[in-house]
């Protein structure tokens, strides 16, 4: 336990702080604040680095996260992440899910316009690609909920379907 306390001091005083991973959050909270319900680790926008405090946990709306500015303030998720449920500072410092890439053979991004939803993908029909498995919507698919794999069709005439 003494090693852990020394690590925290070095981390917060000599190096850029990284918020703990989910698995380590509870231990860090108890060591730092003696309580899980008070520990918060968020990005401080004014200093552009992560900071901890022992004030209280809080939550924000779907599609956003909280940051220090210097008090709690709403912030949009980073472009590579999304938040489909209410964000809480209890165990989180970033929006919880990574967005899908739509980067497999024949895949293109169909839509990436929301911080509360994953990106949607489509197959590049102009180059002969179509979905391996027909998705719920014939034009695009949601990679977090269905298979968005594409394959190349060998035929002479293709349509948008």
Tell me about this structure.
The protein has two domains: 2-98, no CATH class; 107-152, no CATH class. Strand 1 and strand 2 form a beta hairpin. The chain contains two helices and ten strands; from the N terminus they run ααββββββββββ. The protein has 161 residues and is α+β, with helices and mostly antiparallel strands. A two-stranded antiparallel sheet has the order 1-2. A two-stranded antiparallel sheet has the order 3-4.
**Radius of gyration using CA atoms only:** 21 Å
Strand content: 15-25%
N- and C-termini, Cα separation: 61 Å
Low-confidence stretches: 1-12
Order of helices and strands: HHEEEEEEEEEE
Count of distinct structural domains: 2
Helix coverage percent of residues? 10-25%
Shape: elongated
Mean pLDDT: 86
Structural class: alpha+beta
Largest sheet, spatial ordering of strands: 1-2
List the helices and strands and how they pair.
Elements: H1 2-14, H2 22-33, E1 40-44, E2 49-53, E3 64-68, E4 72-76, E5 81-82, E6 97-98, E7 107-111, E8 120-123, E9 129-131, E10 150-152
Antiparallel strand pairs: 1-2, 3-4, 5-6, 7-8, 9-10
List its traits:
24% strand; 2 helices; disordered N terminus; single chain; 16% helix; alpha+beta; 161 residues
């Amino acid at each position: 336990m003494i090693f852990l306390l020394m690590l925290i001091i070095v981390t917060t005083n000599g190096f850029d702080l990284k918020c703990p991973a989910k698995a380590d959050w509870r231990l860090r909270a108890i060591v730092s604040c003696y309580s899980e319900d008070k520990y918060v680790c968020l990005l401080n926008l004014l200093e552009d680095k992560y900071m901890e405090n022992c004030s209280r946990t809080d939550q924000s709306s779907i599609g956003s996260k909280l940051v220090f500015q210097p008090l709690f303030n709403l912030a949009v998720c980073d472009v590579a992440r999304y938040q489909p449920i209410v964000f809480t500072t209890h165990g989180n410092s970033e929006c919880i899910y990574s967005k899908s890439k739509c980067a497999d053979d024949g895949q293109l991004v169909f839509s990436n316009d929301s911080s509360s939803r994953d990106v949607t993908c489509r197959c590049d029909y102009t180059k002969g690609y179509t979905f391996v498995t027909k998705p719920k919507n014939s034009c695009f698919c949601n990679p977090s909920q269905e298979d968005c794999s594409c394959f190349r069709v060998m035929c002479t005439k293709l349509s948008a379907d």
